[in-house]
Design brief:
Mean pLDDT: 89
Strand content: 5-15%
Number of strands: 6
Order of helices and strands: HHEEEEHHHEEHH
Low-confidence stretches: 1-10
């Protein structure tokens, strides 16, 4: 198996996200990855064409001084080992001139033949190498397919968590606006009976309008985030969701995913395994170049068996050779392949180093976020308590409106910071899976 599906505790997405991911394989970008896979399999099937048995024959009739009929039928097969085998049957009826090589007996004769390459072409030959390369290409395209799918999964997760963040921030802004709206109603009533100043009405109304602007901006971000998410959220038949009710989460109360161990295995990354397959392809091509430097020496053997005694059965064994010692094109190809192989090794090392660096950075950030979230949760509690106490002081005349507004805005900022931290830790978790090359869709 070229692909190992890893299942560990932290690899599963949030349950609410699975509703969106379940139909992601119906996404056009996901389906497009299958077309390249089918093309690679078709090319692999095409590479087996040289090893397909060939049946050919002819039937002919001659008139004139030597009236005769001739029938020839034979099967030929080239094997992946480079050995060619063939056999057939022929029959001649009538009178044949001595120069006619098709002379045979009335009852016919059988023929068997084989060609065995003793040097160049045995085991390592062009057709067999093409088949090996096509086999590896099927696996290579499958890895490219998995890499594309993992990126699509990551894009979906990021769109989901971005939308959840926008929605949560909108709710906090809406909550903050509601406090100012309620107070404005009270102030206007008090001002009407002369129990509060016009300045208090103005200050609160100004703050209320600012909070309304913040809420409207949050709404716009939520709508934009939902539109981006809908591109990845598909129906069973692959159509983009029109305007569904996106499931929402209470971000501030979500359980926080804990960081995994500080040791990891990147061997499941498709791009790293892909470099390995490319190296194998280069190795096969280099083997073929080396084989072509050898002289071509073929052992040819055949046997004709005559059914009637009017013609003797014959056997034949011979050697055929050919050698081109210069082969400039092959020498140049070898040099190019060796350079490509060196480059692939360097790219593989670069990819592995970059992956380890990214994972180290993500892991450190993950640990840091867990600590920050724990602290920020306490900050939110304290900010909320401060608002409640300040409200009591304000109601009793112990503080002014600006102090209360400041406390409320501090609470808003504390909640907003907590939301962003929680969302970030889920984003880091998604990026961690993608960087490891783990797919959460089987």
């Amino acid at each position: 198996m070229i692909w190992l599906w890893v299942s560990i505790a932290w690899s599963n997405p949030h349950p609410t996200l699975t509703e969106i991911l379940q139909h992601l394989p119906q996404h056009p970008e996901w389906k497009l990855t299958h077309t390249a896979n089918q093309q690679a399999k078709s090319e692999r099937l095409m590479a087996t064409a040289p090893f397909t048995p060939t049946l050919e024959g002819k039937s002919s009739q001659y008139g004139g001084y030597y009236p005769r009929d001739n029938h020839q039928h034979q099967v030929h097969l080239d094997t992946p080992l480079g050995i060619s085998v063939g056999g057939g049957w022929q029959q001649g009826l009538g009178d044949f001139p001595d120069y006619d090589g098709s002379y045979t007996t009335d009852r016919g004769e059988f023929r068997l033949e084989t060609t065995i390459p003793l040097l160049d072409g045995l085991w390592i030959n062009q057709a067999r190498t093409d088949l090996w390369l096509a086999d590896l290409n099927v696996d290579l395209v499958a890895l490219e397919q998995q890499s594309t799918q993992i990126k699509l999964i990551l894009q979906t997760e990021l769109a989901f968590w971005n939308w959840q963040q926008y929605w949560a921030l909108e709710q906090v802004a809406k909550q903050n606006l509601a406090l100012a709206n309620q107070r404005q109603t009270v102030f206007e009533k008090k001002y009407a009976v002369g129990s509060t100043s016009r300045l208090s009405v103005i200050d609160n109304d100004r703050e209320r309008q600012q909070r309304e602007q913040l809420w409207l901006q949050s709404q716009q971000q939520t709508i934009a985030g939902q539109n981006k998410l809908l591109y990845f959220w598909r129906t069973e038949d692959g159509q983009m969701q029109a305007s569904p009710t996106v499931p929402t989460l209470d971000i501030q109360t979500l359980s926080i995913p804990q960081p995994p161990p500080s040791q990891w295995d990147i061997s499941n990354r498709p791009d790293i395994a892909l470099y390995g397959l490319i190296t194998e392809q280069i190795h096969l091509q280099l083997q073929l170049v080396q084989a072509k430097k050898l002289p071509k020496v073929n052992l040819i053997a055949s046997y004709d068996h005559a059914i009637e005694s009017t013609k003797q059965s014959e056997s034949y064994v011979g050697l055929k050779y050919q050698h081109a010692p210069l082969l400039r094109a092959e020498k140049s190809k070898q040099s190019a392949l060796e350079a490509k192989n060196e480059a692939i090794q360097l790219y593989q090392r670069k990819t592995m180093d970059k992956a380890n660096q990214d994972l180290r950075t993500l892991h450190n950030r993950w640990v840091q976020l867990v600590n920050q979230i724990e602290t920020q949760q306490e900050v939110v509690k304290l900010a909320q308590e401060a608002v409640e106490l300040e409200q009591i002081r304000f109601d009793n005349g112990g503080s002014d409106l600006l102090d209360l507004i400041k406390r409320e805005n501090n609470w808003l900022k504390a909640q907003s910071t907590l939301i962003k931290l929680v969302i970030e830790v889920y984003v880091v978790e998604a990026m961690w899976r993608a960087t490891l090359g783990v797919s959460i869709i089987p």
